[in-house]
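Dear colleague,

Following up on Tuesday's group meeting, I ran the structure prediction for the three-component complex that the binding team flagged. I've pasted the input sequences exactly as they went in, so you can double-check that nothing got truncated or mislabelled along the way. The structure tokens for the whole assembly follow below. Feel free to forward this to whoever is handling the docking comparison.

Inputs:
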Amino acid sequence: MSTPKRVPLPAILLANDLLDGDVVFSTGDGWTRDPSEAVIAYDDPTADQLEAHAKAAFAAQQVVDAYLVDVALDAQGRPTPRHFRERFKTLGPSNRPDLGKQAAYR
Amino acid sequence: MPLLDRSGLKVETFARAENLDDAAGDIIVPWANVQAVLDAGAGNHRLGVDIPNNISIDEILPLADKLDLISVPFPSFADGRGFSLAKQLRDRGYRGVLRAQGKLITDQFAYALACGFDEVEPADEVFARQPIEQWLAALTRITNVYQRGYDGAANILDQRRAARAAKAAQGESKEASHV
Amino acid sequence: MYRYDEFDERFVRERVAQFRDQVARRLDGSLSDDEFKPLRLKNGVYLQLHAYMLRIAVPYGTLASRQLRQLALIADRYDRGYGHFTTRQNMQFNWPKLRDVPDILGLLADVEMHCIQTSGNCIRNVTADHFAGVAADELEDPRPTAELIRQWSSLHPEFSYLPRKFKIAVTGAEHDRAAVKVHDIGLRILKHPQTGEIGYEVIVGGGLGRTPLIGKVIREFLPKDELLAYLEAAMRVYNLEGRRDNKYKARVKILVHEIGVEEFRKRVEEEYAKLNGPSINADPAEVERIAAYFAPPTYDKLPGDSKAYVAQRAANTAFAQWADASVFKHRVPGYAALTISLKTIGEAPGDITSAQMRAVADLAEKYSFDELRVTHMQNVVLPHVKQSDLFAIWNALREAGLAEANVGLVTDIIACPGLDYCALATARSIPIAQAIAKRFQDQQRQRDIGPLGIKISGCINACGHHHVGNIGILGLEKNGVENYQITLGGDATENAAIGDRLGPGIDADEVPDAIERLVEVYLSQRLKDEPFIDTVRRVGVAPFKDAFLAKDSSKTQEAEHAAA
């Protein structure tokens, strides 16, 4: 049996809040809108836990489109997605620095 | 699997079977077997068929007046071919029972009836989440449709036309009463 | 413009209540997420990169001032104070919450608006010529036809679960300003060559995206009163036979391409012959009822060229230059159709703030018989303004930051939202548009270059219509970095053409230089006032391709100099 390859670790898990649409990050047992508070999985068991949390939250009608995203850590130890598309999800529109998480959390 | 129509749940009177030998009463046979069953003669049994939803109307139509029931599958709620098949069957004279079977959701029930289906046999997994009350409630959501030629709610274009005619008649009778 | 009767009103109200119930059934688990997704898409609700996006229908691009004001209110109350006009004449909001959407739909219904079928595998917003009713080359206003199709296609019981989306456009003029040849069905209103009867040329299988194709005529003349029955036949063939095995091969253009237009026509005509037309078609009285709403306003009787306007032009060069770019000749003497550019240099193409929406609404109400239009080039039109009012309008637009004099010029760039917003995108498009606009912002230079349509898409789905841009830009990804392919020679008009790719993709910061090199070739090759697209057609792609690729040699020269 083949399973799809997991993204390289370390990784965070993000999703969209079902009712609001905001991008949210798993804290292991809850969700945060602040990317710097995302729990970082350095090993497979932690990544498994994040995915299990997301699966339960999806079944409970809380989030949609959850998936792991591989990250690098910045100087402050905050996770930054390595792919530019996922980075935009933690920031907001590049032409509107006044909108999105880049404005709310920086 | 449950069976329902615009009045609610109904009792299934057909059984699925490969051919007449396998069942005592009314049967639904697979498309591949239906010609053989027709050739052998259905006798007193009512005969239905499970057709594939990518069949051409030209294939099914020649047999239609010998069939009591045609069941059209919906392998996914996203696959709307069954709606067109039903419409074609009705437009070209089929008067037996039309059944929509499979993964339809309640929000498609009104469409199915409008296209000529009499009944729906939803997948168990769907019906477990969408009980009969939701199916019936779905029929009350949209009072009038725009399209002419579909069963069900009187369409808006015809209602407008009737209103115009009524208005014109009023106008005429007013004139007449003045003479 | 069309006004709802009791039936239309009840219909949208019921759809709002139905959607509210659909959300409730999603939340209580009755509907799975997979089942809910097409239901929310059929009400214009997308899930994008940062938030939901709500796409509001602007039927055939026509709006009244009170509707635009309501959009401004929704932008302020439920979004971030701005909206975006799309290449299908619709409005998008980028930050609504799903929990608020039923209330937003209620506010829209209050002004006879909706989000019905602006997404999903169904018939989408029917678009039309944004100069409908005012262009001198118009045979018949396409909007009554578009309105009839809008109603007929709404919550259609048979055609709501198609293999894929279905886009219809209508033109009623000699010059096609609705891009009908790149739609799933394009309708061209025309006169029968012998009888003079009005009817439609029916074009099928146009489209952009992964496999751009120009539509083909399947019916040269369809009598007007047979429209709905014929559409039913065509849609039925597509619904039954369109591919459902592969999302990227599911549009009707693929079906037409695979079985051939002759076979497709044959199947449609066979189905059509079996239909009972009179039981399907709209009766002439209904068609007239709809058409009456689009009767021309009561124009004043004015001289051909307003003396005041001529004098104001002579006295104010900036005004004259703005008018040259923005004014479209109206068929009624003394009037003008005015295009307001939503391509202010440095801003996101097609975006408009709530304050600007209110400003435009006021102008439409005061100067344009309370009517405005949205174009598929992401600008707004005031269709009936007096020439003598243009100066006052210009001043009001300047105050609102909406007086960019670039309509149709190189900085009037069409761009999809791209990776800054869209979950489907592979690259950003807005910053590319901004960079090009900044590079070419010099007004004199823009006028010198003349008409040049640049269109940018942030992914292969081509919502920016890059295939039919005179210069097209497609944003992809290469080696983990955004990468841009340039195409040349596209055309969205009656001379529809798909652009040719010039070479390998380039980096974002190389794009403005590349556009410069292409413009230089044009300027050196053009004859007199020949517009860009005509020069490309005349001299061919080769000289442009050479110039595009020449960046490597200039880079090599730089490197050699540095090494020396």
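Residues 16 and 23 of chain A are 4 Å apart (CA to CA).

Cheers,
M.
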